Amino acid sequence: MVNLHRGTRAARGIRQPFAVKFFSDYQWHSQMQLHPFPEPDAPELEHYMLYSHAEIVAILRRIGQERTLVTVYTGEQGEFAVTMVLHVDPDFDEATFDMPVNPEAQARLLGAHELVFVVFFENIKVQFRAQLAQATTYEGRAAFRVRLPTQMLRLQRREYFRVRTPIMGKATCLVPQANGAAKYESLQVLNISVGGLAVLSYPHNFELPVGETIRNCFLDLPGVGPVNVAFRVVNVYEAEEGVEGRRCGCQFVDLPPQARMMLQRYVNRVEAEQRKALNNAKSA
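Below the sequence we write its predicted structure tokens.
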């Protein structure tokens, strides 16, 4: 394994990432709420930088345990792939990630000189960098590994909160069956953000193939209403112990502004309900 980049891009004279081209005149403290792109190196962000090896390992492990989708940017033109943390090994100073399904995405990832990982986790935007990924396998599946980062950026951010749906009034997703456009399978939504969702499917009734884009789906968001969406299936895992079915992580594609607004309204509502319940429990 090669070493991670140890200094800042600005100090080493390396070109800034593509996000700076899009937001060359931006003020980071106001625009960080508006985009999912990597944050550039900036003195103002130093306050949000984490250097503790133990904390970085703990955060990566929690991201993996929650099976949260991670976006990895592979080039200055905005190319990216979606992955997940599979394993974190502090003894070997490396983290292993799920290999993208698309061959072109695999080639870009393995050929990139630097990777920027961005994930929205526990109401925080987490970002870190790695140099040169290596192809490997993990528990029989294709994967890639990188050196553990020596620093990690954590920013409070409100655009892509991913929330667990409440026990009462859970959101559901109607997905068209392949054998008939008029037939739909109702899937339970496990968690959701304006970037994607996780659903529970039952393979003896319905399959969601990894890499497939499924259109004309209908999200039923309690208190908000139905939303027509399309999504790409990113990964499929067996559900947690004691739960029948498979957990499918999906990324929204071609999301219209109205649908995005309704999703954000639902996420905000669920988050407010969860915060209220937590405060009531503390005061009880």
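The CA atoms of residues 30 and 157 lie 11 Å apart.
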